[in-house]
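@channel anyone free to eyeball this complex?
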Amino acid sequence: MNSGDSAAVRTEHLTKVYKDFWGRPKVTALDDLNLTIERGEVFGLLGPNGSGKSTTIKLLLGLIFPTSGRAYVLGEQAGSPRVNERIGFLPEESYLYRFLNGEETLYFYGRLFRIPRRELNRRVPELLDIVGLDAKARKRKLREYSKGMARRIGLAQALINNPDLILLDEPTTGLDPIGTREMKDLILSLKRQGKTVLLCSHLLADVQDVCDRIIILFQGRTQTIGFVKDLLEVRDITQIQLGGATPEQIQAVRDLAARLGISRVDISHPTTTLEDLFVRIIRKQSS
Amino acid sequence: MRELLRQYPGLLAAAAVVLVGLGVIGLTDVLRFSVRRVLAIASVCFRQSIRRRVLWLTPLVIAGVMIVAQFQRAVDAQDAVRQTTMYCLFATGLLTVLLSVILACTNLPAEIENRVIYTVATKPVTRLEIIVGKTAGFACVSFWVLLIMGAFTLAYLHWQDWSLRRVISRNLETNMVDEVSVPTLTYYRDRGTLHARQLGLPERLDILSRMPADDEDRWVAGGGDGEIMIRFRIDRSAVPPPDPAEAEELGPLPDGARRRWPGGLALVLDVEARRTGNGNPSTAPATAPAAASIGIDLRNGRLESVVSSVALGYFDIALPAERVPLLLHIPQEHLERWIPASAGATDVYVVVTTGASGYEYTLRRAGTFMQVPGRKFEPVDIIYGGRLGWQLRGGSGAGGRLAIYRFRGHSMPRGAATYSFELRSQLEADYWETLEEAPIMRVVCDIRNRRTGYVARGIEVFPESNRPAYFDVPAAAVDDGTGRADFDVIVRMTSNGWITLRGGSNASLKLIIRDQSFAWNIFKSLLILWLLSLLVIVISILSSTFLSWPIAVVLTLVILGGRWCAQQLGDLTDPGIGRAIVNDMFRGSTAATSRAVSESVDALVAALRIVSAVLPDISVFAAIDAPQRGVAISAQTMIEALGVAAFFGLPLLVLSYVFLKYKEVAP
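replying in thread with the prediction:
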């Protein structure tokens, strides 16, 4: 595989078996994963606890090594420092130095990318603005941060190098609905910028909202993979939405369906999501 | 190559680790190495330590030192300063080492445990940069600890020196000091108590019964006061094992006999004795004088008696007219205890102790040797000294006894009008006096310049136990214009009693060649401690790459102290200890049991020796001893410390990197 490969992530028979002290196999965390994530898509990694999601992410980042199979990221062997230049990673919790403040954290990670000082001076406040950490929060030590603030600074450090591929492990954990919405907006914004996002989450609604494609893992094995739209589509039911219809008009639609021999007709008012309702109310109050 | 491997196995192993680790396994990481990333990681380590208030420990330690210093029992002003110097440097070293161990051992396991490593290892950082960065960060912490402690040490000692000199000046002005102490206290007042002197040690010390006519004419006193120490270098591989069935012929010996060889060693001593008429009054027999005699003691390289004269016996010495060399057979069992079978070329000593008084004794080098079939061992060196070390006796029974310190080859500074000597000795009262009742002890020194023939005569010195006596001599006595020392100091005791003098690396008499800055000496001491802390950090990080932090701390301490601990076992790690244990504790056991015990113990001891041989020798980080004694730390000490730090530190650093490279950092 070379850098000309169009896939952002490619795995071939990727398998990870955890072993005990004596080298005997203990748990097969990931079993023969074959996966291709194209550049520019938002990809969801789904599965219950222990299904192999985190193991996949750790393998792609080189934090652990495969028992067999191969993983390539942006055309390079997964885990190589060279490919890490182009990756951003937000772990499931913000595993950051708690004695640094927000600004120091971003400067530290920026220096690891050898970003010039002048560029860092520009990018750090910009990122802090993007993730919504105000001037006061920036000077506080991370150990004083709330869980939501920690997620925000975690996200900022994942974006410090303007990465081509962003791996987000449970990105909305700990965020309030507004934060969740902002995170999802940010993911879609990254997609619009042509970035590839690999998302790993328990919150299926979040995944559904932002992902182009998903894979569902269970006990380390692939259960299904495909476009969200295709996977969720109920092919034997057709939905017609009518705007501003009177009761008489609705009855006429029912009658027409009956004449056409359609046995099952369900006409009701669509509901918004609770998240939409919450965001609307809070934003209205804020403004 | 094989010869190189045999001579420098450790060095080659270290070089191999570095080359394979960096040149083969880590070549891509070496090529990617970025100082900026290393500095970023180092700065985070440093900031973490500082924000954990590590430096707050320094005021606590400083307070501890100041409290302990209040309870010191010093003999005099200089002793007080030296004790304080020791407290300060010891506390500094202890704090630095402990901090380095704890910080470096806990850091990596903690980052893996709390998963902070996820956000670092997933950046374009190589594992090499992580290891080097962490090492640099903790080195920076220890640097600041040393800087703070060093500043305190200097300030505190200068304050102590100033206050002590004020008291000394006042006492001298008001004549509150005894006559004996005046020269020493004047020296303290004028030159202070903070010293970093470069001292010239005598090449050798001989204590003789009278003034020698030349270098070959050395006689020691009888009556047990004299002692002649002969150093041999014996290679056990050149000594054939005992095999009576095929015993070889030893070859000609001084008695003309040719004999077959039962194992062990043949020792030939050409000892000469003659009457002096100066019997030791304390030990001289009331009846007719006994015949001249000697005892022989076999000592190991550490000068510990292995086979005493009680075991070997005493030997009469014929007077010059019928003198024949003494032939002694050292049997195989003594040889096994004296020179272990697995030892290579080893320095050992044969010590001749003089017997009857009324005689003086000498040993002729030409007729003294050891022999086995096909090999003869000549003496490497012969020291003519006094019994129980180097005692010089005074009083009426002492005759012409004297001590000669030979100073050779020291580089002398130009332009000095006088040179100072420091005499440190222990005094003993004569048999009929206690020390308190004894008159003032007095010695007289003559300094003889061998090139110019100039002699500075009759320099009177009042030595005191427990503190040095200083005396000045004219430059002409020690400096002949060539810039190289070539003079003898001849010491005679002119009062009753004994003075114990020492030669070797801790000689009693030292020439003060030049005085360095005390602050510079403390700086060198701190630099050695910093090198030690670097080694500690590297070992700690290595341990923490594959162990949990508590076990890593223990392993680090074992690696650091292992060699020293093995050295403290002394004889217990000598080959052949298994047989000694069987002899002492399993005497009635069966042959099979004895053999099992002996071989098991020997195998354990061999394993211990190998392990201790590959561990770093932390005794080279001698940062406290020299400043405490007021001696300048030599360049050689610095180089040795740097050498051990680099020799062990670099390969261990590379090993840490290799371990971390192949370590899964996600728990």
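from a first look: Chain A has a mean pLDDT of 89.
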